[in-house]
Amino acid sequence: ELHYPPRLNCSAALLDDAVARGQGERIALHGAHGSWTYARLLERVDRIAHVLRGPMGLVPGNRVLLRGANTPMMAAALLAVFKAGCIAVPTMPLLRARELATIVAKAEVNAVLCAADLCEELDQLPACPPALHFGGPEAQLESLMAAQPATFAPCDTAAEDVCLISFTSGTTGVPKGTMHFHRDLLAICDTFARNTLRAGPDDLFIGTPPLAFTFGLGGLLLFPLRIGAASVLLEKLTPETLLQAIERHRATVCFTAPTFYRQMAALAARFDLASLKKTVSAGEALPVATRHAWQEATGLRMIDGIGATEMLHIFISAAGDDIRPGATGKPVPGYQACVLDEAGRPVGPGVVGRLAVKGPTGCRYLADERQRDYVQGGWNLTGDAYEMDADGYFVYRSRTDDMIISAGYNIAGPEVEDALLRHPAVAECGVIGRPDPERGQLVEAHVVLRPGHAPSAELTAQLQDFVKSQIAPYKYPRSIVYAPSLPRTETGKLQRFRLRGKETS
Ligand code: 3UK
């Protein structure tokens, strides 16, 4: 059971309380240009909060769009918006003007804080709310901050006041806004992070997910602050530069998506990764082949966890001895999950159905229609096809909409992908159903080869035979398309709709 006082400001609970406990001189954030102690971060947050409520003229409840890569300044801006009693609307750095315009309208944004290197797209908006830039040569925000008092009394918010409107990254293209309370930002620290991740004050967090994605907001900012630990915030990471950063900072806890772990596993031998203790994979399904490759390369057992923007963070996961390869895990303490049929009735173990989840952090859509269709009695339908095994472990099959139906068989693309990834020639792959006059849909694999391998008819036949030797033969990809790379979102998700849209011969 989680208990929070009825009046609660999450920023004060995370940061002011840490400094009051004597954490002030410990490092909170490492960035590319230096490190900030807890006291320094608090001071930055307080000055930004003053700018919001003073020169920017905002009042509690106003919505502030944030745009920036992972930097200490971006983290401070987020915490300042919460502290001022405003509502943060973080946006992914790669979003373009059109998507930003949708978010500005849907979330009724009142003001913008934007990293100087990302302001171009914003300048193209037909109606951009008042904006301040930070981190650049102009540094409008920083110069206003310098003139403000160094301490700000936290806005007296209710635990159930909205502090965050987060838009789903969307594998389908349409961004959906979800609302979260001050209480929720602490609740993810006190459920998944406390019970499953179990990190401590001497841990050093690192990873790729943007702070604008709740996977990153939790993993790289809220979780470390809640326990007095430190976090490394770096922009534009690649599998290679993330490995370098882990080695250089001696990071202990890493958050990223399966595709990054796959690529890191292939390079890991060149780095000293002995500092790493816990690695968390989320964003899309973790293939058993990737789990094994990572364990082989690092000796670490991956903590897989399914989370969603709607639920704020991870709600089914497993760590340590509870890990069962092939399963995501069990509901995180505090959450409930079940598998439902089309009519909304629970199905028994071993039957694939629609995943429903309920817990302290979900689920509130900005749009009422969505709330009506996807949330019933506090249960949220995530859009995932799952099955529960006899021991209560939840096994991912596919996104509900991505199940391939070929000649009457239901085939889950990720299962075929997992089989292909076990083949030494395959670096990345994505499996979709292509419309087919005879079979309804045809299983088609899009494959990126590892260096040293080239496409050929022989390789195609080899890969097909290989899949047939790993899983039921009817699931093998009748079509294989070779590609230099696969389309992914900023959050590491394969964009299957883009593979389906591709013309093939
Ligand atoms: C898929 C997974 C299988 C699944 C997220 C951790 O991904 C996050 O949020 P999004 O709203 O997407 C949610 C959807 O992504 N998914 C995520 N993790 C897994 N599928 N195994 C997994 N481990 O389809 C889910 O419905 O972008 C992840 C924390 C916070 C997040 N927002």
Quick recap of the structure?
About 30% of the residues lie in helices and about 25% in strands. With about 500 residues, it is an alpha/beta fold. The chain has two domains: about 15-325 and about 335-345 and about 355-390, ANL, N-terminal domain (Rossmann fold), CATH 3.40.50; about 405-500, 2-Layer Sandwich (GMP Synthetase, Chain A, domain 3).
What does the model show?
The protein is an alpha/beta fold. It folds into 2 domains: 13-325 and 334-346 and 355-388, Rossmann fold; 403-501, ANL, C-terminal domain (GMP Synthetase, Chain A, domain 3, 2-Layer Sandwich), CATH 3.30.300.30. It contains 15 helices and 25 strands. The strands form 6 sheets. Strands 2-1-10-9-11-12-13-14-15 form a 9-stranded mixed beta sheet, with helices on both faces. Strands 16, 17, 18, 19 and 20 form a 5-stranded antiparallel beta sheet that branches. Strands 4-3-5-6 form a 4-stranded parallel beta sheet, with helices on both faces. Strand 12 (278-281), helix 11 and strand 13 form a beta-alpha-beta unit. It is globular and about 70 Å long. 52% of the residues are buried. The model has no long low-confidence stretch (mean pLDDT 95). 5'-O-[(S)-[(2-aminobenzoyl)oxy](hydroxy)phosphoryl]adenosine (3UK) binds at residues 168-169, 214-215, 282-286, 304-309, 313-314, 328, 382-384, 396, 399, 491. 5'-O-[(S)-[(2-aminobenzoyl)oxy](hydroxy)phosphoryl]adenosine is lined by residues 168-169, 214-215, 282-286, 304-309, 313-314, 328, 382-384, 396, 399, 491.
